Amino acid sequence: MQESLGLRIRLARTRRGMKQAELADAIGISRNAMSLIEKGTSDPAFSRVQKMAEVLKTSLDYLGGKKEEDSEQKPAAVA
To answer: Which domains does the chain have, with CATH numbers?
Structure first.
């Protein structure tokens, strides 16, 4: 069974030890709006999903269900 966008956001957020209110603040929405997104009763704008991926250090492919594993993006090596 494929996980929903909201569930993947919640999983990525909790894996990083982030509270719902912290993620909501980071992307500029209310905690209530974040709750509705995670429950799957509200669909966020694509720009919000992009910001969530950035804040959570995950990929849009993971959040969108195209990638199975949530691997944190690794910073580029400094030469």
So the answer is: 5-63 (1.10.260.40)
